[in-house]
Amino acid sequence: MFKWAKLFGWFGKDEIDKTVSSPNGRVKCRFAMKSGELSYSVLRDEKIIIKPSKLGFSIYGETPFGKKAKLIREQTKKIDETFELPWGEDRFIRNNYTETTFYISETAEPNRIMTMRFRVFDNGVAFRYEIPAQPKFSRITVQDELTEFNLDLNTVAWKIPAYQPDRYEYNYEKSYLHELVHSVHTPLTLRTPAGNYLSIHEAALYNYGSMTLKLNEKRILKSDITPLSDGTRAHVSLPFQTPWRLIMIADSAIELTTNRNMLCLNDPPRGDFSWVKTLKFIGIWWAMFVGEWTWAPGERHGATTEHAKQYIDSAVRLGISGLLIEGWNDGWEGDWLENGVNNKFTTSTPDFDLEEVARYAKLHNVELVGHHETVGFIDNYENQLEEAYNIYAANGIHYVKTGYAGSMMTINGRREYHHSQLGVNHYQKTVELAAKKRIMLDIHEPIKGTGIERTFPNLLSREGARGQEYEGGALSPSHACFLPYTRLLAGGMDYTNGILDLSNSVKRMSTTLARQLAYFITIYSGMAMAADRPFIYEERFPNVYKFIRDVPTSFEKTLPLAGEIGEYYIVARKDRYSNDWYLGGVTNEDARRIHIGLDFLNDGSYIAELYTDSEDAHYRDNQFGIRLERRHVTRNDSLDLYLAPGGGFAIRLMPQ
Ligand code: NOJ
Ligand code: CA
Fold this sequence. Notes:
alpha+beta, Beta-galactosidase, Chain A, domain 5, TIM Barrel, ten-stranded antiparallel beta sheet, seven-stranded parallel beta sheet, 12 helices, 38 strands, 16% helix, globular, binds 1-deoxynojirimycin, binds calcium ion
C-alpha cells in the first residue's frame, strides 16, 4: 500500500522563524517552521499582507519526510544587477533582491534533503522548492502542492476560470476572494482591503503543471497544480526545482504593471540569439474571420499562391516586413477541429506552392510567417515537428505562428490539459527545437507566459487571453482595460491589433478607430500583427494606417502613466532604435479626459502626431470619429486628451 506523504510539512522539534528583507526593507518575508508546519508570510511596511501560509507538497508513495528534519544551513546574498533584453518593453531591467536559501535535512534515515530558496524584491516575493539528487530518492510523483497564499477574504480579485474549454480565453471578472468557487488562472491580480495591489503568478515554468489557484476547505487560497490525466500533478527526476511562486506587490494598479520580477527570475539566454528580430506582419487571416475567404481549400480558399503574392505586394506598399499565411497546409477540410488529428504540416494544398511563395517573398524582402494549427493533437504534431520546421527553414521562413485550438490536448494517446506538465513540456520542446532551427514563434492557445522568453528570446509572442478574434459580440471595451493589469503581467500578447473595418457586419468591433492604433502601444507583442486586410489600410484609411506603419515593435523604455483595472490604461514607450516616443491609451465604456505631462521627453522640440477620438466618437454608433493632428511640443508642455466610450488614442512624438 502506498501512503500519501506530506513532504515538507513536518513535525520537527526545531522551530525556526527567519526574516528575509528586501533591499529597501519595505517588503519582508518570514519563513517559519512551527508546530510541525513549514510556512511563510509577507509583510509590506511592517504590515502583514499574506498571513502565515503553508508550504510543501505531497509525494506519491513516499514515507513522510521531515519528522526529524532540521535546518542545516542558510545562506544569504544580495544581488543588484542590470541586464539587457534583446527586445521587449524595456531594454534594461534592474534585478535587485535579497536571497536566502534554507537547506533542510532529515536527521534520521533516509536522510533526505531539500532546499527552500526565497528572493525578496522591493516589489515582490518569490520562492521555490528545490530537491537535489540524492541516493535514496531519485524520482518523485507530485500528488499535490500545498503552497498557500493566505489572504484576507475581502480581498478583491480579477480572475479568469481555469480548466475551461477555451483555456485562457475568457473575460475577466471582478469579485471578492470569498466568492471564489472554482480554480482560477494566474496571474491573479488582487487588491487587499488595506489597498495593496498584488498579483500572484509563477516564473520559469518547466516540466511541471501550471499553477492555478483555488480556495481550499479552510477557505485559504491554495495552489492547484494542473493535474495530468492519471490524477497526479507531475512526475519528475531529481534534481528538480519547482517554478518560482511569485507575489508581485505595488501601491497602485498602474505601478503593478511595471513589475519585471518574472523576467528577473528566469535565466539569461542559453546560446546565441543574435538572429532574433521582432516583426510586424499582415496576414491571410482576417478575411477568413469575416467570411470572405476560407482556411479550407475550395472556391474561396485564402491561402493560394495568387493571394499570397498579392499580399506580399501589399506588404511592400504598406512598408510591413512580414506576412502570415494560414490554411496553406493539408488538413483544413470539413470540420477542422475534428479532423485536426490528421493535419499535415509538411504538405501544402494543390493551389498553394510553398517554394514559389517563399521565392517571391524573398525577392521582395518580405518575411513569411508560417502556420501550424495543431488542434491540440500533439502526437500528430510531434511526429512531424522536425520535418515541418526543416521545410520552413529550407524555404527561408524564420517565423512560425502555432495554434492549439480545442479544449484538451491529445498526448501519448490521452487527453491532457494544455497547461498540464505534458502540455508545458510540449510547448517547451517546440521553443527549443525552433531555437535550434533559428525559428521565432508566436504561440496561440499557448501555455501562459512565465518569462521563459528571457532564456529563449525566439519565443517572440503568445496569445493566451481573449483576443480580437472574439470581436463581433464577445468582447466589451473593458476587456483591453483589464489586460495590462492581469494577463500582460505574464508578458507580451498577440492581440491581433489594427482592425480598422470596424462596422463589418460579420465581425463588428467594440472599439473606435483611434483605439485600434492604441493597442499597438497598450498591448505589447514582439510579433505585432496588423490584422486587417491590406486593402482596408491602403484604400480606406491610408492616413490612419500611417501610425501602424510607424509604430516600433521593440522599446527602450516603458513608462506606465495612469490607469485603473478594467477602467483605463495610459502608457508611454520610447522606441529602441530612435528617440521617438509613442503614447497609447484605452478606456472602458466610459468617456474620459486625461492630462499627460510630457516631462519624460528630452529638451528640445518634438513633432507630435496625434490620433484621438473625436468628441462625438462612440464605440457603438460613431466608431470612425477620429481626429488627426500634428503639433509642436516640448517637455514643458502637457496634453489634454479625450477618450470616447470604448475609445483610445495613439501618439507619436519625434524630436525635430
Ligand atoms: C485560433 C487562433 O487564435 C487564430 O489566430 C487562428 O487563426 C485560429 N485558431 C485557427 O488556427
Ligand atoms: Ca485563440
